[in-house]
Amino acid sequence: MTSVSNKPNQVPLAAEGLTLTRSGTGIVSSFSARFGDTRGDQGELVAIVGPNGSGKTTLLQGLAGLLSPTAGNVKVHGQILAELSPLPRAKLIAYLEQNPRVHWRLTVEAVIRLGVPQEKVWWFSEDPLKKEFLEHICDLTFCQDLRHHTIQDLSSGEQMRAHLARLLIANTPVVLADEPTANLDPFYQLQCMQLLSNIAAQGKTVVVVLHDLTLATRFCNRMILLNKGTIVADGRPSEVLSEANLRRVFQLKASAVAGETGLKEIGVAPEYPWTILND
Amino acid sequence: MTAQVKRSSLLGGHKWLWLSLVSLNLVLGWAALILPTAPGLPSMENIQLLQAFSEALFPSADWRLTPLAALEQQILMELKLPRAILALSVGCSLGLVGASLQGLLHNPLAEPGILGISSAGALGATLTFYSGLAATLPMAVPLGGIAGAAIATLGLFLLAGRQAHTATLILAGIAINALAGGLTSLVLNLSPNPFAAMEIIFWQMGSLADRSMSHVWLSLPLMLLGWVSVGAAARSLRALALGEFTARSLGISMPMVRLQIIGGAALAVGAAVAVTGVIGFVGLIVPHVLRSVVKQDPAVLLPASALGGAALVTAADLAVRLLPLQVELKIGVLTALIGAPFFFYLIARQRNTADAN
C-alpha cells in the first residue's frame, strides 16, 4: 500500500488568483485559498458552500485542473496544475463529479477499478491495483456486498458508495467531491461525510462542495462561502455562517450557534419578495 | 512483493471467448480457401490445401504427395486467398471501429458509417467509374476510394477543429455523409449511360469477388495502422464509461482519444470501403451482440468485436459464394438483409427488459 507522499513544506493544494470563465462569462474570479497542511501529516476536510450559481462546481473543476484558468493558477504540492500532463495530475487529484453516471452496465467492482490511473496503455500490461488495497477500499466504503452487482441496478445510496470507492482507490493526496450527498437519505449522507472525514483524518486534503449547511457544519472544520464567484468568508463554520452572511448570501433568516451542529430558527429572510409570493 | 500483485491484463478472464472466436475465424478462413468461389464448382481437398501451404512456405522441399494442378493453384492464390484475407480484415476493421465508436460516443447505435468516411470513400470510388479511370487502371477504384476517405477525414477534423467536442464531430460526420450522398447521386444522375450507373450501384452494394492480392497490399497496411491506433485507445474507452469529465480527471487526454479513434477509424474503414464497397450492419450488430458476453467492458469489446466482425464477414461472403442464385448476391445486400431483422429482434428484446424493470 503506497502512502500519501506529501512533499514537506509544500501546500497540498493552493489556488492563487484563480479566475475561471465559461463561454466568455466569468464564473469564478480571483479565488485564492490554501488547502491542507504544510507538514503533510494532517489532512483537512473543507466544505465549499454557497447558493445555486455561486460557482462552486466551476471552482471545483478548476481545482481539479479540468478547466484551464483564464488567470491565476492552482498548485499541487508546489507544481502548477496547468503544466502537468493528465496522468501525473490524476495521480495527485481524484475528482468526483456532480451526479456521476456510468454509461455501460458495469459491475461495481469494474467501476471501482476504473479509478486507478492507468500507467500503461498497452494490452498485456499488469493491473497496477493491489488486491489488498481494493479489499481495503471496499471495506471502507461498505462496497463488499455490492461488488458483483451491476451498478445501474443499485439504489442511489449504493451507487454513491461505489463512486466514493472509485474516488478513493486512486489513493491521491487531494480528493475533490462535488455534492457527494445529493440524492442520499440522511443515513447515507452521514455515512458519506463520516467517510470523507475519516480519510481527511488520515492525512488527505479533501474539498467537498455541499448544499447541506448542517452537514457541512457538523463534519468540516473549515468552510468557504462562495457568492457570485468570489469568497465571502473562509474559516470555521460557526464564523462563516454568521447571521449577516446567511441573510446576504443565502437570503435566509437563521443563526448558527457555536458548538451546535446546525442552523437555528431557519426561515426565509423577510426582505426578499419571494416570501410574499409564498404567503 | 510480486506475488501480491494480481496478474490480470486487459484481456484476462475471457479465455473461452478468445478460444472460440479465434477457432471460429480459423475454421471460416480455412473454409473460404477450400470451398469453391461459385456454386456447382468442386471443393478443394484439405490435403491439397495443406500441400499448397507447405509448398508456399518451403518451396525447395519435396512435397509431392497430392499434386495440385496449376489451375487450382492459381485459383487458390489469386482468387480465394485475397478474398479470404480481405473478408477477415475488412470484417475485423468494421467490428473494431463499430465497437470503438460506440464506446467513444456512449451510444450503442453508433456504427462506422456515422463519421461520413464510408460514404466519402464510396464517392471517391464512384468518381473513378464515372471518369472512366476504372476501366483503364485496375487499381483506380480502391485508390479513388482511399482518396475520398482521406479527404473526408481531413474535412472532418477541419470542420470540427482540434479541440472539438464529440458532438461536433458527429454533426460534422452527418454533414459529410449528406454531402457525399448528394454528390454520389449527382454522379449517378449525370452518368452517360445506364450501364455506367449500374456498375456504380453494384459496386456500392459491397462485394469481395474478383479482388486480387494488389487490393490486399493496398488496403491491409492501412487497416493494420488503423487497428493499432484504435487499439491504443482501449483503456481510455474504459475510463470513458464514466463520462468525459471523470475520464479526464482519471488522466485521459480527450484530444488524444479522439485522434486515436477517429483517425484509426478513418484508416481502417476508408481502406475497407475502398476495396469492398459498403458492407453495412457489421459494425453495428457485432459489438451489440458481444457486449453482454464481455460484461459490457468497452476495452475488451474491441478485440472481441474485431474477431466477431471478421467471422461474420467471412461467413457472409461464403454464403454469397455458395447460394445457388443466377446472379451472385452482393455481400452488402446480404448483411443488410440479415442485419436489419436481427436489429429488430435486439430492439424488441431491449424494450422487453426495459418494460420488466
How would you explain this protein's 3D organization?
The complex is a heterodimer of chains A (279) and B (357). Chain A has 279 residues and is an alpha/beta fold. Chain A folds into two domains: 13-103 and 171-239, P-loop containing nucleotide triphosphate hydrolases (Rossmann fold, 3-Layer(aba) Sandwich); 242-279, no CATH class. Chain A has ten helices and twelve strands. In chain A, helix 3 packs parallel to helix 5 (156-168). Chain B is mostly helical. Chain B has a single domain (73-341), classed as ABC transporter involved in vitamin B12 uptake, BtuC (Orthogonal Bundle). Chain B has helices spanning 15-34, 46-57, 70-105, 117-131, 133-136, 140-160, 166-190, 194-204, 213-231, 234-239, 244-249, 254-276, 282-291, 301-322, 331-356. In chain B, helix 1 runs antiparallel to helix 3, helix 9 runs antiparallel to helix 12 (254-276) and helix 13 crosses helix 14. Chain B is globular, with a radius of gyration of 21 Å. The interface between A and B is large, with 43 and 33 residues.
Low-confidence stretches of chain B: 1-8
CATH class of the largest domain in chain A, anyone? Answer: Alpha Beta
Q: What share of residues of chain B is helical?
A: over 70%
Low-confidence stretches of chain A: 1-6, 273-279
Trace the largest sheet of chain A across and list its strands: 6-7-8-3-9-10
**In CATH terms, what is the fold-level topology of chain B?**
ABC transporter involved in vitamin B12 uptake, BtuC
Q: Using only CA atoms, what is the Rg of chain B? A: 21 Å
Secondary structure: number of strands of chain A: 12
- Structural shape of chain A: globular
Bulk shape of chain B: globular
The CATH superfamily of the largest domain in chain A is identified as P-loop containing nucleotide triphosphate hydrolases
